[in-house]
Amino acid sequence: MDIKSLFRKKSVEHLLADAEHGHHSSLVKSFTVTDLTLFGIAAIIGGGVFSTIGRAAYDGGPAIALLYLGFAVACVFSAYCYARFASTVPVSGSAYTYAYTSLGEIIAWILGWNLILEYAISNVVVAISWSDYFTTLLEGFGIHFPDFLTTGYYTVKEAHEELLNKGTATSPQIAELWNTAPNLWGIPIIVDLPAFLITIGLTYLVYVGIRESKNVNNVLVILKILAVLLVVLVGLFFIKPENWIPFAPNGIGGVMAGVAAVSFAYIGFDSISTTAEECKNPQRDIPKAMMYALLTCTVLYIATVFIMTGMVSYQELRVGDPLAYIFQKVNMNFVAGVVSVGAVIATTSAMLAYQIGQPRIWMVMSRDGLLPKAFSKIHPKFKTPSFSTIVTGALVGIPSLVMDQAYVTDLTAVGTLFAFGLVCAGVLVLDLQGIESKFKVPYINGKYWVGVLWIVILGVIFIYTDTLANWQKAFSNGEGIGDVALKILFILCWAWLSVESFRKNFSLIPVLGLLTNFYLMTELGTENWIRFIVWCLVGFGIYFGYSYSKSKLHGK
Asked: Does residue 134 fall inside a structural domain?
């Protein structure tokens, strides 16, 4: 095996030719810029604002709004890079396709493999969140689902082990399910049935047509924007400014503890690019839609954080349905009910967006020979990637029956940030190759700026914080040494980028995108990195066992 062959690339012309010919060319071109913007909002606003936002606020207090703003800035850097690629290569496949043209096949493969984390696995979290709000909504009508049919097996198992080890549990009712649920051969029957059923229903909708999916999505997105606006406008009348003090009760550490939850909240803006072959004018509309969607969602997120933490203490927000909870606390049960309806709508549209995106990534990977041909099969009647859609439904539906939401959220965040960072790196390669695009990333010469920023920020960190002392403590007692090692690795990578920027006049925006995404990855901790590395190793095993020899570029 020639090492160079691992980094073989597909030219832009080759990718465009593949998209224009063959059975996959029968995809229906129906998306306008408005459709794409709503599609992006559908993917971004879901479990992030109706579920994980409570977890983030519990850790960081009102200051978590700054993390939402900071992450939005990081996403803008990434969005510029995605837009550059989308205008250069208007082909489905998102980051996978972009990496194939710039970084080479093996990087494209591992990106495609990690996009499963961003789209399919993250949808498990959204499905679980949907189930929580749906069952709460039914309770308002006097309809009760048995708890053992609305809770994940591993959620109950973890709560039960916490009860055994500590004598108490965060959720005693959930912990007790381990003993009270029906069992089969001694194994408790505990499943989240609503999460599974909504996944199957949406998979069917995506299977039967993109126009139908798009129209349903547009209606759902408008309704969920109205629901979030209701939270903001009504919540204004119940704000107690004293709840915002202290602004950062757990310090910077508490704010950064919300990285996984906040990054999950922005997952999906790049899903717009997965529909490139179904857009009427992808080179013009995809860049616009990405920016419009990001701006809209960031404003709504920050407003929601301030309303939520202003209405109740941040200490009360570690609940699965925080927006409904805050209105129940002020005896606005009607609004809480409307919010629950909005949450069901919001998470439904987010799931729909992810269920549309993932099959199209697999379709393109199959087209390149890296997956079996069945994944690129287009249904003759419905004009959708049929087999890929069914597999996506199974990959989301089955884990949603049993998985714990927090575990999946953290794993998803690592894979997503990895994809965002590599797309930024790919733009640097396009610049070096001199490939022109209709969409231009604003050029700011990073020759000196990257290095200057490195020196300034390191100086601030080491002079005005206790970082160095904390690192020395970690090395002396061995606690948290892995997290420190990640930070040191980040500093060394920034130093290397400073040198390369000086040598090659790198554009500052993609460099900042690469750095911010990598830094946020380091904040997710060594445990999540270990899971991520194991996930990547499995992906490499599949590549070398099947995809390398089956690639259409093999032998060329």
From this structure: yes
The answer to the question of residue 470 being in a domain is no
Q: Which amino acid is at 530?
A: I
φ/ψ (deg, to 5) at 31? -80, 130
- Are residues 171 and 214 located together in one domain of the fold? no
The mean pLDDT value for 470-474 works out to 82
Rounded to the nearest angstrom, the gap between the alpha carbon of residue 306 and the centroid of all alpha carbons in its chain is 23
Residue 546 confidence (pLDDT) above 90: yes
Q: Does one domain contain both 232 and 119?
A: yes
Mind giving me the DSSP string for 136-147? HHHHHTT----G
Q: What is the pLDDT of residues 336-395, one digit of tens each?
A: 888 888 888 888 888 887 888 888 888 889 988 999 999 988 888 888 888 999 999 999
In whole angstroms, what is the distance from residue 110 CA to residue 166 CA? 40
Supply the DSSP symbol for 48.
I
183 and 206 housed in the same domain: no
Tokens (6 digits) for 427: 């733009």
Residue pointed to by tokens 């830094």:
519
What DSSP element (H or E) covers 430? helix 405-433
Positive or negative: CA dihedral 46, 50, 54, 55:
negative
State the number of CA atoms in the 13 A half-sphere of 319 facing the CB: 17
* Distance (Å, whole) CA 357 – CA 120: 9
Number of alpha carbons in the 13 Å side-chain half-sphere of residue 399? 20
In a domain, 148, yes or no: no
Tally the domains of the chain. 2
| Pick from 238, 543, 538, 248: nearest CA to 415 | 538
Q: Are residues 157 and 126 in the same domain?
A: no
Pairwise CA distance, residues 200 & 211, whole Å: 19
What gap in Å lies between CA 137 and CA 470, rounded to an integer? Answer: 47
Strand pairing partners for 192? 150
Q: How far from the centroid of its chain's Cα atoms is residue 62's Cα?
A: 22
Does a structural domain hold residue 203? yes
Instruction: Tell whether omega for the bond before 188 is within 30 degrees of 0, i.e. cis.
Output: no
CA terminus-to-terminus distance, the chain: 13
Whether residue 399 has a cis bond before it, omega within 30° of 0: no
Contact 364, 273 (CB under 8 A): no
pLDDT at 227: 84
pTM to 2 decimal places: 0.82
pLDDT in tens, 23-41: 444 566 777 888 888 888 8
- CA nearest neighbour of 454 among 513, 418, 496, 420: 496
| Domain containing residue 117 | 3-142+195-431
